[in-house]
Amino acid sequence: MTMFGPILPQNIIVEAITMPGDIQKYDLVANFLRMRKRVFVDRMAWPLHHAEDVEFEQYDTFDTTYILAHDGEMVLGGARLRRTDRRSCAGSVRYSYMIRDACLGLLPGMPSNICHDLPPLDEKTWELTRFVAEPKANVAERILEVADSYLFSVGAERCLFLGPPAFMRMASRLGWSPEALGDVVGNTDGRFVAFSCNVHVANRACTSAH
After folding, report:
1. Residue 7 in this model has a pLDDT that exceeds 70
2. How many domains, in total, are found in the chain?
3. What is the DSSP annotation of 179-197?
């Protein structure tokens, strides 16, 4: 795993987990889904689909990659990465990824005007969503940096994000040069913005670490 930027305590690992190749690490993904339920459903009261103690949806499939920060089995944060040309089905509806599906009016409760133009279906473009991290030093920043490293390793050129305006400001602070895809919009869950960043890890001085 390529590591760079802020240093975390040695016991905290940030890594990319992709199914089915990393099926032996699925317990970490399950713990991330539990964390999402605690944060987004229990704490923030978002009306998201959940069952018992996990939050999941149509984009949590076996061709999804998760960037997870963990201390042993304890997940401290993570994000979900999905290539924008992938598909998932729920009944008669074929979903692609969250930002595009919102623009197409396929996600009830999500504004359809989050982008000025319809986002692409492109193997070089990925989407990062469900970003969450415990307020520990550098965990959020390391998740984004490892996501950048992973995207570079699979040949991605661009990543799309959906989050509150503060998320876009953090991406800018980390040097991602974000570009808004639309205006800041809102619903009962809060205010958020869709934006795009170029994958740029090749421009950084990277070192290898365990």
Report:
1. no
2. 1
3. EESS--EEETTEEEEEEEE
